[in-house]
Amino acid sequence: MEHTTQPADRQNAVEVRGLLKHYGETKALDGVDLEVRRGTVLGVLGPNGAGKTTLVRVLSTLIRPDAGTAVVAGLDVLRQPRELRRVIGLTGQYASVDEKLSGRENLYMIGRLLDLPRRAARARAQELLERFSLTEAAGRAVGTYSGGMRRRLDLAASMIGRPAVLYLDEPTTGLDPRTRNEVWSEVRALAREGTTVLLTTQYMEEAEQLADELTVFDRGRVIAGGGIDELKAKVGGRTLQIRPADPDELHRMVGALAQAGLSGIGGATADETGGLVNVPLLSDAQLTAVIGLLGERGFAIAGIDTHLPSLDEVFLAVTGQKSSSLRRPAGDGSGPENAFEGVAA
Ligand SMILES: Nc1ncnc2c1ncn2[C@@H]1O[C@H](COP(=O)(O)OP(=O)(O)OP(=O)(O)O)[C@@H](O)[C@H]1O
Ligand SMILES: [Mg+2]
Fold first, then answer.
1. Closest residue CA from atom 2 of ligand 1
2. What is the SS3 assignment for the chain?
3. What would the pLDDT profile of 172-210 be if each residue is shown by its tens digit?
4. What residues does CATH 3.40.50.300 cover in the chain?
5. Is 54 in the pocket of ligand 1 (CB under 6 A)?
6. Of 19, 20, 23, which is best to mutate to test ligand 1, by the most ligand atoms within 8 angstroms of its C-beta?
7. Which of 19, 54, 81, 264 could covalently link to 28 via disulfide, CB atoms 3.0 to 4.6 Å apart?
8. What is the pTM of this model?
9. Is the CB of 50 under 6 A from ligand 1?
10. CATH level 2 (architecture), domain 238-307
């Protein structure tokens, strides 16, 4: 049984135009346009209340938008909801399996709901239990599962119908690092097999690990998008990190750069703990000029490196606030410290 029927000429597995969903004063979706190319993973990033789950609910036909259009796998969410439900998989932020049934029973039941014959439903359940390392717990009530086991079962459940498009709504929130890695490798395997994935997450690292492209949401709107490197480049250039051979020369080096007044370069800073001089760069020519100048002035350099902004920094730059998942180690004051404005919930 294959449900992966999509018109061959369609490049985008998901096409969203002008999507609007308001709850009273709250603009959960406030004019969203987005596209997911077939066979790719789109990461949807955003803080609490940004509208990520609302988007997933609209795209899975669970709620109707107030306005706008959405076409998934060639099917219109408003006009062809029943057909659409057969070609999508959904792993919700809130698990959707029945606690009283065993893992195996849950998967079997979902297979039957998708019209699989009994034997096929049993076989598919077994296959997925194995794939997600759940065979030992397969006979136990899901109520006794750990958080990670539930999440894996939920992921397995969303894949029973071999969906062409899979929505993963914060699939690893609350998982320990090992389980999170397991989920990541399953998602990668799915993407390799050609499944289109729309993944919402608050973890920058997760987006970086899994997504081909990114869309950043805030207050119901798309505020940035593109490839990860593209997004980083948009936010700001690289930082050149120079390690003087003699750590005592940090400040002299910063002084020399300030005095030289190289065009477009301002604000070299000394990082005493790291023993580095940081220089914000916008071009390769600037990099060459900085290194050249330091050479001319007789500075001995032990090492250089360039550093792209992290996704946390990207997020901060485009939303003007920290991502709610920004968990820096205590006492690490690195990075710009914009005032955190809570998002109206
Ligand atoms: N059924 C509803 N009734 C009223 N308001 C709602 C409803 N569903 C969502 N909202 C509001 O819409 C906004 C967007 O919510 P949504 O759940 O889509 O955010 P989210 O990006 O998924 O957040 P989180 O990261 O916390 O899961 C929030 O302000 C939320 O309170
Ligand atoms: Mg959500």
1. 23
2. CCCCCCCCCCCEEEEEEEEEEEECCEEEEEEEEEEEECCCEEEEECCCCCCHHHHHHHHCCCCCCCEEEEEECCEECCCCHHHHHHHEEEECCCCCCCCCCEHHHHHHHHHHHCCCCHHHHHHHHHHHHHHCCCCCCCCCEHHHCCHHHHHHHHHHHHCCCCCCEEEEECCCCCCCHHHHHHHHHHHHHHHHCCCEEEEEECCHHHHHHHCCEEEEEECCEEEEEEEHHHHHHHHCCCEEEEEECCHHHHHHHHHHHHHHCCCCCCCCEEECCCCEEEEECCCHHHHHHHHHHHHHCCCCEEEEEEECCCHHHHHHHHHCCCCCCCCCCCCCCCCCCCCCCCCCC
3. 887 888 888 888 888 898 889 899 999 998 887 888 889
4. 12-233
5. yes
6. 23
7. 54
8. 0.74
9. yes
10. 2-Layer Sandwich (3.30)
